[in-house]
Design a protein that fits this description.
Number of helices: 4
CATH architecture: Up-down Bundle
Distance between the termini: 39 Å
Order of helices and strands: HHHH
Structural class: mainly alpha
Radius of gyration: 16 Å
Oligomer: single chain
Number of strands: 0
Shape: globular
CATH class: Mainly Alpha
Number of domains: 1
Bound molecules: fe (ii) ion
Length: about 170
Amino acid sequence: MTTAPLPAGATEAPLRWSDALLLGFAPMDRCHAEFVDVVAALQAAPDAELPARLAAVRAHLQSHFAQEDEWMTATGFPARECHVGEHAAVLASVAQVEVLLSRGDTATCRRLADELARWFPGHADVMDAALAHWMCKRRHGGKPLVFRRSLGAGGQPPAPSSKPPSIPR
Ligand SMILES: [Fe+2]
Ligand SMILES: [Fe+2]
């Protein structure tokens, strides 16, 4: 398999969807597949496209996090505060990087893209998985069944990072 060359300044191959990311709550899984698409597009973008790609990531995250926050609020999810707080921290970092990018700081934008790619599997595996189980139990009376295709070499998502992305001072 061949891979496209990384854009100048990029350090990591773009995030790729893997069935390992499936959580079994279909609306959330669709949203997470979109997250992978927009972050991968940001990672692969040439410098001239970074502002538009970062704006697309912000728009996606606002909708993604608002939906999860709404599910938690509407259903009285017990661990809501911590989860909402992590979403807010990510959005704050994206907003700060948009300001830096508007001043020409493409390197920090690329670091954010890579940090988002590293952060997401851990967030999905812990916080989003708990919410997915909660939502399935409320809607269907049990935990979700997840059917994953077998993962070959390279099918694993990146090693998760436990911390939300932050930008350097
Ligand atoms: Fe999520
Ligand atoms: Fe989340």
